[in-house]
Each structure stands twice: as C-alpha cells, then as structure tokens.
Give the backbone structure.
Amino acid sequence: MIPQVPPSAHIIKISLMAMQHQALNIFSERKLNGFSKKGFTLIELLVVIAIIGLLASIVLVNVNSAREKAKISKATVQIREVVKAAALYINDTNQYPPNCRLDCTSASDPFLNGLSVAGWSGPYYTIYNLTHSWSGHIGISKADYDGDSISELGIVLDDDQPGTNSNNNQGAIPTESLQKIDSLLDDGNLATGSIRGDGQGLNTAAGELVIIIKL
C-alpha cells in the first residue's frame, strides 16, 4: 500500500516553496533591473537572511521530529521482543524470570542462562546490556506493581544506563515520547492500564516506563 502523506507535510512543502520563490524573486528582480553587479540594500539582505533562517528552522524541526519518531518505533519493537522472550520463558518454566536491572551481567541474564531453573529452554534474548533509543537500560523486574499482593513481571524502560545506578539519569525518555509509546501499545494514559510511567504510577521516575506482564 502506498503510504499517505499527512496534510501538514503538504503545507510545509508549499510554505518552503513559497519562501524559496520569494528569495529567488529578490535576485531575479535585481538582475532584470540592471543591478546584478551592485550590492544589496539592507532591507533586501534582512529579508533574505530571515527567509534562510526560517527555512533552516523548519528543516531542523522536521528532522528532529523524524528522529524522535524513529526512536519511538525502535522502542516499541524492543518492547515486543522482550515481551515475546518473557512469554517463552514463562511458558517453559511456569514462572517469571529473575530480575535483570542495572547491575545485570551476561552471566546473570535469565534469558541467556538457565540459572538452574527447571524447564529453561533458552537462550531467548539478550537483555543485560539492552538499551532503548534514549540510552537507558531495558530491564525486567518482579514486583507487586498494582498493589494486589500478587507479583507481576515488569519490563522497565529505565532512565539510567546499564551498569550504572539509580542516580545516573542519563537515559530519560521525553514525556511526549512516553505517551506515544503508551498510545501505540496500551491506552495512551501513563497513569492507567498495563503501561505506566513518567512518575505517574508503579513507582516510576520521570522519563521511565513500566510494562506489566501477568501470568
């Protein structure tokens, strides 16, 4: 199927074309009037500079937006892969995998190593050094996340980098991106549903996300 171009993209394209046309008009009019060898007036220079600056800012905004969308897309793929690995682990062992957070290593990664767990048939995935697009760790942790006195498995998109501690805070995910991930995978509300985050539930800090999995 041919992807549809959003209306905003057409508007931006038309605006860019109009500004480019305006800048070219300044050069063309001067040449037609015999001023091609003379300097520009201050007003003309200011107009051209303003147009170039506006063009650059529009391009920068769109580039940054595209990059953030790519990060969100990658994060959702990673979450699905971890969910799949956890589901296989649970199916084989009938229990949640052990925690694998910031201090997890290749030797203690439960998806890579059986760790004497009956029924383990991995390896399923690699998570000890897995990072999301904003450089924080993606880990797993068992806890009573929803307060029903029963442990659940949480997939944690941490704001801290692998091998560090909770004071690192170098991998925080922007709130808008957290909400977009939630919208793609759950109910779009960071305070409800199976996905919580950004300090709005499940003891998450700002810039973090937790996805709950139940047996």
